[in-house]
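Quick one: co-fold with adenosine monophosphate.
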Amino acid sequence: MGCNMELEVMKVNEQNIKNNIAAIPDFPKPGILFYDISTLIGDPLAWAETVNRMALLIKDLKPDVIFGIEARGFLVATAVASNLNVGMQMIRKSGKLPGETISLTYDLEYGVDTIEIQSDVITANQRIVILDDVLATGGTMQAAIDLLTMAKAEIICCATIIELPLLRGREKLRAEYHSLITYD
Ligand code: AMP
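Sure, here it is.
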């Protein structure tokens, strides 16, 4: 079950959150408009509101554990997990996690990237949510979905603070998806 009514209420006030996100042209390379959440996490009220709203998006789905995607996804996932009183786990770039890992290599626009989790962080029948800061092309989120699916996780939903709908990332995702705010 989703939370579409709450989602509509949140959209009304999305400007409050947008006011704390800077759009930086040509970063990290020419042609990219980078949405910077540094101000958002630095403003206690705006960040608390963002975290509360992210938590509201997923709380009816009754997650058991929230996975965050390195690096800014860690900020979102840790805060939301704490808000909902559930555990948080990390989806990291390769070579950062000790012990046995499960990894997945996926295609980028130029080249490939590898993400991984520790092999013992998925428990049978756990209801898992994946969070990140931004959904652009959707490649990163789908790679995270593929990795956790490979590890036999039950992914109930994924979500980001920001969605860039013109890039049509959500169409790529093989999981329920929600965002708090969008930029055209
Ligand atoms: P994508 O795989 O294209 O959906 O890109 C999403 C990932 O890249 C997320 O982890 C974001 O942190 C980062 N990202 C992509 N595009 C942007 C953007 N325009 N502004 C900020 N972060 C971005």
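If it helps, The mean pLDDT is 93.
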